[in-house]
Amino acid sequence: MLKAVILIGGPQKGTRFRPLSFEVPKPLFPVAGVPMLQHHIEACAKVPNMKEILLIGFYQPNEELTRFLFTSQQEFKITIRYLQEYAALGTGGGLYHFRDQILSGGPQAFFVLNADVCSEFPLPEMLAFHQEHGDPSSLVILGTTANRTQSLNYGCIVENEETNEVLHYVEKPGTFVSDIINCGIYLFTPDIFQHIAGVFQKNQQDILLEEPANGWHRAAAIRLEQDIFTALAGQGKLYVYKTLSFWSQIKSAGSAIYASRLYLSRYQITHPERLACNQDGGPKISGTVYIHPTANIDPSAVLGPNVSIGTGVTIGAGVRVRESIILHGASLQDHCCVLNCIVGWDSTIGKWARVEGTPSDPNPNDPYAKIDSETLFRDSKLTPSITILGCNVTIPSEVIILNSIVLPHKDLNRSFKNQIIL
């Protein structure tokens, strides 16, 4: 029997995803037409002998999350439960806190996935790899290749090339260590809890010596990467399965558009029914486009490539949309142009307006390039990136909004360039 655990974080996390995370928890943000988490759940549900999926995080249970869990259970015919941490316990602390729930029923192994990654999720391949490498209690990290410079932004893995054993693990090193990086997707056996327990007890002893009053919570905050993997590397207990398929982090709103492109492209194989195609009386489709059935689109509109249209969206005559996510209830009026943008819920873009951003794609000439986690500001200026309209923003007719972030509930009355509009 197998289980899966998805680490979804909490409201203090995902700050780089604002203003979009004001309206919806980041793991439920739609990427390629479905909530980010649904891609993870779908991959887990396809694994044979998968009995239960647990979400661990410190979001307050809300109507949106409850509805998502209910509909996912109905669709994928698998038990899905949300376990709420009392505080942010780190990637290892949450697992340890809910170890009894994870181990109930006696799973032989369980997957752990970070919610903010976009991947093909080669889970069956990881299972087969686990059976062939090391002893039955060994642990597997999914790895991929990055270029030398960008590898410094991730956990780096030095492997034995013959056995794939992890010899050395460093989280975000200061200098180049390896071009194999941690993808945030793992296959663990119940033995992982012995290793986490050892760290927990050591933390308790260290902290109680310093400040007895507030020690327990800090002892419970455990990071898999720094506290567990670094210690287990080189002991014959940790292995890396390297994937050649696509992988990206979803840290910022810009990376959501890139992730949407990867998933939409993947739909050509896995879900061709989700992709729009050119039909008589329909809009012109160029490349991969997802359109929700409830959207109302004028036949003279041109959409794509990499466009995702949400529920109840209205798109007028002559509209051009490319490399963008249009969220539910938005209205794009006649002849407006939307490029490299996320248009928020219930927002309106006026006639002949142009809303454009700068894509933050990886270098197309480097096969190992990953998307850069750009800081919001560089040299005291806003870094050019995609344009984001928060929910219920109104853009008037015949203006240009370029490389800007507009917070929710704003009615703009002129053009803006390279600004955050509060």
Based on the model shown, name its key terms.
nine-stranded mixed β-sheet, alpha/beta, 422 residues, globular, seven-stranded parallel β-sheet, 23% helix
Short synopsis of the structure:
This protein is 23% helix and 29% strand.
Uncertain residue ranges: none
Distance between the termini: 51 Å
Structure classification: alpha/beta
Instruction: Give the number of helices.
Output: 9
- Mean of all residue-level pLDDT scores: 88
| Proportion in helices | 10-25%
What is the count of β-strands? 34
Shape assignment? globular
Strand content: 25-35%
For the biggest sheet, the summary is: 9 strands, mixed
As a whole number of angstroms, the C-alpha radius of gyration is 22 Å
